[in-house]
Specification:
By secondary structure, this protein is of the alpha+beta class. The protein has helices at residues 9-17, 31-42, 88-91, 227-241, 275-279, 298-305; strands at 22-23, 26-27, 46-57, 66-77, 83-87, 96-101, 106-114, 120-125, 147-153, 158-169, 174-179, 189-191, 197-204, 220-226, 250-251, 265-266, 269-270, 286-290, 293-294, 313-320, 323-330. 16% of the residues lie in helices and 37% in strands.
Length: 338
């Protein structure tokens, strides 16, 4: 068969008219449009945190009034009950905390607690009649080099900036991103290009004392705690703060962002004398149903547990050695040291 060495005119026209931003029919996302959608969808969930810490007297011998240092950060409303996620870099040792909404409303905030990692805090605010009922969609699949969008309070209105993913650290629930512009403050929410919540900015990575530095205005690498990790930890804090809340007594891991699991909750550890141990559950069991609700991740299990009370007896189905088994668990209250 003989082939012509001339390029057909129609094919040449097609090549010349393909946009530089289009490859095999896929167009690069318009980040400005995505940012606008994120503000419209999640703008009411973002609050500015003002944490005031006493740092000593004013200096006069007869003046015992403390001076106050103000630390500013960001918090994110993740339920309809007035609970906000923020971080210890914002509120550590604060004697007084207020939060303000994007519309300028000001509220006093109470600290419910901190998670076991010492990073994530939950604030509770009262005095507001309603909270956003936005359905939060967690990001599940991201890769090195993906674009991200950060949204936080600006000087007069919500603002956004962009960055890229440098590294995914699935085991500890963090992602490293690079930002060229002013990134915002600790607690700033980070989204993927599908407007799904990726996580929250915590601190800037530096060679010296990385964990103690809060985000500034210099470009560089920043640590983001994934939204699944943060929201699961936050719900555990809320449950623990309620003396009537039910406790199970297991630990598991949050799903990997690179390969989300969908086959149940793998029990990695069981607390001694906990309801889980008393019921006969063992390490490496995989919980697939809890209280007749299918669960595919630790996050979903915590969702089912939230609102359940100590004394409730619930059925559980799990897999052990390839066999499907069942048991009943009577939840207890949280131990004082949990």
């Amino acid at each position: 068969m003989k082939f012509s060495n001339k390029i057909p005119a129609l094919f040449l026209i097609f090549i010349l008219t393909v946009s530089a931003d289009s490859v095999w029919g896929e167009t690069r996302p318009d980040l400005s449009s995505i940012a606008k959608n994120i503000i419209e969808t999640y703008g009411e969930n973002v609050y500015t945190v003002n944490a005031f810490t006493a740092v000593g007297s004013k200096g006069a011998a007869n003046d015992t009034q403390p001076k106050w240092r103000q630390n500013i950060g960001t918090a994110f409303s993740f339920d309809s009950s007035g609970h906000l996620i923020t971080f210890n870099t914002v509120i550590k040792n604060a004697g007084n905390i207020t939060v303000s909404s994007a519309t300028g409303e000001l509220f006093d905030a109470q600290v419910l607690g901190c998670d076991n990692s010492g990073k994530i805090n939950v604030l509770k605010i009262d005095g507001k009649s309603s909270f956003p009922s936005t359905q939060i969609i967690h990001c599940k699949n991201v890769y090195d080099g993906d674009d991200v969008i950060l949204m936080g309070p600006g000087s007069s209105e919500l603002s956004t900036t962009t960055g890229t993913i440098e590294e995914i650290r699935s085991r500890d629930g963090t992602i490293i991103i690079n930002i060229d512009d002013a990134p915002g403050t600790s607690g700033t929410p980070v989204f993927d290009t599908h407007s799904h919540l990726l996580g929250f900015l915590v601190y800037q990575l530096e060679d010296s004392s990385a964990a103690s530095n809060v985000p500034g205005t210099n470009s560089g690498s920043y640590v983001v705690v994934t939204s699944q990790f943060a929201c699961t930890a936050a719900k555990l804090i809320i449950n623990r703060s309620d003396e009537k809340s039910g406790w199970l007594g297991i630990t598991s891991s949050i799903n990997s962002l690179e390969n989300p699991a969908n086959n149940g909750v793998l029990i990695q550890n069981i607390i001694r004398n906990s309801p889980a141990e008393i019921s006969g559950l063992e390490i490496d069991d995989i919980i697939i149903k809890f209280n007749n609700v299918s669960v595919t991740s630790f996050t979903e299990l915590i969702e089912v547990l939230t609102g359940m009370k100590a004394g409730n007896t619930v059925p559980v189905q799990f897999i052990r050695g390839g066999k499907r088994l069942s048991a009943e668990i009577t939840l207890s209250s949280f131990p004082e040291n949990r």
